[in-house]
Amino acid sequence: MSAALQTPAPTRPPTEMTPPSGGHVLPVALYLKVFGALLFLTGVTVFVSYLDLGRTSIVVAMSVAVVKAFLVAAYFMHLKFDEPFHVLIFVASILFVVLFFALTLVEFGSRGDVVPEQDTPAYEQDNPPAAPVPTPTPLGNTPAAPPVGQQQPSAAGQCDWRAFTASLCERRMV
Amino acid sequence: MNRTTSTHGPDQSPSLHAPYDSAQQQRSASKLGMWIFLAQEILFFSGLFMAYIVLRFLYPDTFLQAHAKLSIPMGASNTVILITSSLTMALAVRAAQIGDRKGQVRLLAATLLLACAFLVIKYFEYMAKIEHGFLPGALYTGTGLAGKPHLFFTMYFVMTGLHGLHVLAGIGLIAWLIMRARKGAFHAGYHTPVENAGLYWHLVDLIWIFLFPLLYLVK
User: Fold this and answer.
1) Could you tell me which of A65, A28, A59 has the C-alpha nearest to residue A44?
2) Within an 8 Å CB–CB cutoff, is residue A77 touching chain B?
């Protein structure tokens, strides 16, 4: 094996020194700036969560999280100054996660769309749910009548496993 | 680790092993392995994130109500603690790069302290949940929440618990690094373990950056 197999490092900004084993030393000021940006963005995330943005609030929160992730990956993890192959590995893993989410959500979101009898689990066909789940009551009030199949802990704090498993079927979790 | 005497040019540190021809090649291979591990870690957590997405999609009101039982100040403090620990870790790697032995030990120790602080706050958060019966799945005995709050708390405990285990593993890793760094094992010519532990630690921070808004700031 020869030096030809070594990946040439990309051009990088002037640094104080380059260690003998490769790599790159970044100035402390750069790390501190990234740190400041991360703290600021954390503040933004918390602040925005108190605003009433409806459905876009999750989009905003995730966008800010992505920006923070980019800063950590590019500067703290040195991806900006590192071999491009490492960037490829990182980005590829994210792409596969996105693929995973997309396909699962497509499948999940379209359940029951095609043939209702075939898409309803057998348990529910035999025992259709008696009543719809009541709308959530305000905090502090326990619901008077629990919905069908909801797990009921007994007075001693034990769990009703049979009802719990049945409720999983009812809710299409199994 | 074995220390083979170098017989080649001046860029070969005493920690160079066969089959690598140079320290740079050895470092590059080592970092490649670490990045592949990090890719696996991302996919590892993605399963839980997928479960979170599905459950939140199914029961948005439950998530909205149940998440109010979490303490945003504690969650935000943990976020700040982890981001600061990422900074001290990055600076520790830099200290190793320029051969500053005292600096790297101090900064690694700071990272370790911050990581422990994170776990301490987590401990108090968990205790508060357990006291009120806000437990995962079938263990749930809390009151005052409508819908299916045991599902939310399942996601909360499993996701933060798995993340907490990663923090614990990171603490062990950093403690090992400190012990080696104090003996001067890391210098400008060889500091790959510090770099790789840094990468792992930054990933732990990255995961928390996504966990925090999803669990604590539901809207």
Assistant:
1) A65
2) yes
B86–A49 C-beta distance less than 8 A: no
Identify the residue among B13, B17, B35, B36 best suited for mutation to test binding to A, counting A beta carbons within 10 A and taking the highest.
B35
**Three-class HEC string of chain B:** CCCCCCCCCCCCCCCCCCCCCCHHHHHHHHHHHHHHHHHHHHHHHHHHHHHHHHHHHHCHHHHHHHHHHCCHHHHHHHHHHHHHHHHHHHHHHHHHHCCCHHHHHHHHHHHHHHHHHHHHHHHHHHHHHHHHCCCCHHHCCCCCCCCCHHHHHHHHHHHHHHHHHHHHHHHHHHHHHHHHHHCCCCECCECHHHHHHHHHHHHHHHHHHHHHHHHHCCC
| This prediction's pTM | 0.77
Query: To probe the interface with B, which of A17, A21, A55, A137 has the most B CB atoms within 10 Å?
Result: A21
For residue A111, give Cα distances in angstroms to A106, A108, A114, A126, B54. Answer: 9, 6, 8, 19, 13
Closest residue to B43, CB basis, from A7, A31, A93? A93
Listed range (A142-151, A159-168, B37-46, B127-136) with the worst mean pLDDT = A142-151
**A154 phi/psi in degrees, rounded to 5:** -80, 175
Residue B89's pLDDT band (cuts 50, 70, 90): very high
Tell me if B127 sits within 8 A of B41, measured CB to CB.
no
Contact of A8 with chain B, judged by CB distance below 8 Å, is answered with no
Where residue B144 falls among pLDDT bands split at 50, 70, 90? confident
Task: Indicate yes or no: CB of A76 within 8 angstroms of CB of B87.
Answer: yes
Q: Which residue of A has its CA nearest to B88?
A: A31
Q: pLDDT-based confidence at B61, cuts 50/70/90? A: confident
pLDDT for the residue numbered A129: 60
Sorted by sequence, the CB contacts under 8 Å of residue A119 that are 6+ apart come out as A111, A112, A113
How large is the ipTM? 0.87
Mean pLDDT of B172-183: 95
| Mean pLDDT, rounded, for B103-119 | 96
